[in-house]
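Technical note accompanying the year-one report. For the benefit of new consortium partners, we illustrate the data format agreed upon in the data management plan: each record pairs a sequence with a structure-token string. No post-processing was applied to the example shown here.
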Amino acid sequence: MELFDIPKHGESKLDTAVLVQINFSALGEQRDEHEFKELVRSAGATELAFLKSNRKSPDSRHFVGSGKAEEIQQLVKIHEPDVVIFDHDLSPAQERNLEKTLQCRVMDRTGLILDIFAQRARSHEGKLQVELAQLKHMSTRLIRGWTHLERQKGGIGMRGPGETQLETDRRLISIRIKQINKRLAKVNKQREQGRQSRKKAEIPTVSLVGYTNAGKSTLFNQLTTSEVYAADQLFATLDPTLRRIDLQNQQSIILADTVGFIRDLPHDLVAAFRATLQETTEADLILHVMDSHDEQREEFKSQVNDVIFSLGAEAIPQIEVMNKIDLLGQEPRVDEGHDGVPARVWLSAMSGEGSDLLLEVLSKVFGNQVFVGDLKLPASLARLRASLYKEDAVTNETTGDNGEYLLSVSITKRRLESLLRKEELSFEQIAVA
């Protein structure tokens, strides 16, 4: 049998592909053809043929039936693709049997998403996370990479060179996984220190989440005037990006752009990006970005909320952002919930229409966390006065009859409470009635 190499980290061998998608009635499945083709396109592969079929349940040996396997084999002979891609997770044995039958490299859905992630990761942390997921996925499929070597054990003490090589590879992969975990632990510690610093500064965090290609990064760029990479493809950006936004009433927030979600996201990737997604679990507010033009938006919304729930972030307040209204021909607007709190904002991240409404909503949400009023400080609290000026919280100052400082301030309640704790004061002691 021919040897089909597993691509190295960061390397893609997807050029031309035959695509296979099966709906299994016993599992109640209805696969999304458009999403599958978008994944393939995002990986940089060219579709040569697409085979879609229905079947009651997967075949344990070839995943598809023998007749369908022969049909795929004919497509491979006609088109001579670099790879046959299945929109399903295949077991190592199924993948191996299909490669033997088709005489062509076979890739499953998890392998495809890993390939995209390997191409997209830019930061040191992102590359480590992707490599870790790749190694875990690859470790169960090592036997495929050594089909040209002998595997017969023989008698006692008689090991074939193929088995020896496999054991060596497994040991090297195990060592590499330990090294990556150690490096990621260090990176996660640094990220946690950053989160603690933001907490000390009393700056609330708003996390952008959404199904991949909903327009999160485009909206992030619009709100922060940044230049985060954004494109019309799945998983355009992987690495989390944080920027500070100044709202009204001298209120500031940290906006975090996170990795997009997708149906059946590989478990190893969810685990690998858990530290990155912790920005969502630690957020004060979640902006759930959706493609308002997509007919499947409710299904995608459910998929994203399932991931949010799995992360333990279901209790965090959420506002829906209905993006791409320019494709619907709608005007920007804000929908309020039953409690009068903004529940949904309709906008276009591409044109910028409605982005001002979203900023107003954020100002309103965090506005009740800001104290705007007057304080009376005796001369003995000059240090607190200096701290308020350092926070850029003082909007006006006069002097009282007894030499006390009369300050008009605008500052977050949490930050003011923190400053008062340092001076062992209560708000009532300095507030002007």
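Partners are asked to follow this layout when depositing records. The first strand starts at residue 16 and ends at 24.
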